[in-house]
Specification:
By secondary structure, this protein is of the alpha/beta class. It has helices spanning about 1-10, 15-20, 55-65, 80-90, 135-145, 160-170, 180-185, 185-195; strands at about 25-30, 35-45, 50-55, 65-70, 75, 95-105, 120-130, 155, 175-180, 200. The strands form two sheets. It has a seven-stranded mixed beta sheet with strand order 1-2-3-6-7-4-5. The protein is elongated.
Length: about 200
């Protein structure tokens, strides 16, 4: 994924090597499945500092208060617009990442969760193609032929999960349970729902 993002930046006209030379990473919040984002703090040699964040679109949108419309200009965040964009990208079977940032004072050298909650400016979203391997499609077909029900658990957007499920031939690809759905169930309901209905889980709040 990181390699794909660097390639994308290069195709968009960014000199990745030059940018890395200008901006030094001074701290970071590593990706974790619980908070579903990664954040880095960078400083340059001219007294500027900034926080850059990428992660699950619904998580990043919740962390933003504005969106960038041009260099140096922002406006209020249009949640509905970006939610629709995320759904559109996911429906094509692509992994969706949202990108955001904010400027901080140059003396800011420690990055904490409080620094990114509700204060970010959304930069945009990207879709990454990560097609299923042919052997996965074959394996699913063989399991079905043998009477084995196949479930999928993924950290992707629910729309991406449904699209990939169709591509690999899972039964009931429209039946998606999110993490929030499962959290709302008791143990008995979860045991009955998933095996009986052939549903699968996507990690989306």
């Amino acid at each position: 994924m990181e390699g794909a993002l660097l390639a994308f930046a290069g195709k968009a006209g960014t000199d990745v090597r030059e940018e890395r030379g200008i901006w030094t990473r001074t701290d970071a919040i590593a990706f974790d499945s619980k908070h579903r984002f990664m954040a880095t703090l960078h400083h340059d040699h001219e007294g500027h500092a900034g926080v850059f964040v990428k992660g699950a679109p619904e998580r990043i949108l919740a962390m933003c208060s504005a969106q960038r419309i041009s260099p140096g200009k922002t406006e209020a965040l249009d949640h509905r617009y970006w939610e629709q964009k995320a759904e559109h990208i996911a429906a094509q079977g692509q992994r969706v990442l949202a990108l955001a940032a904010r400027a901080v004072p140059p003396e800011h050298v420690v990055l904490e969760h409080a620094d990114v909650e509700g204060t970010l400016v959304l930069l945009g979203m990207v879709g990454l193609i990560d097609p299923p391997r042919p052997e996965a499609v074959t394996a699913v077909a063989e399991c079905h032929a043998a009477g084995i029900r196949v479930k999928m658990i993924t950290g992707d957007h629910a729309g991406t999960a449904a699209a990939i499920a169709r591509q690999i031939g899972l039964q009931n690809p429209h039946k998606v349970l999110t993490g929030a759905d499962l959290d709302a169930m008791n143990d008995a309901a979860t045991d009955v729902c998933c095996p009986a209905n052939g549903c699968f889980r996507a990690h989306q709040s």
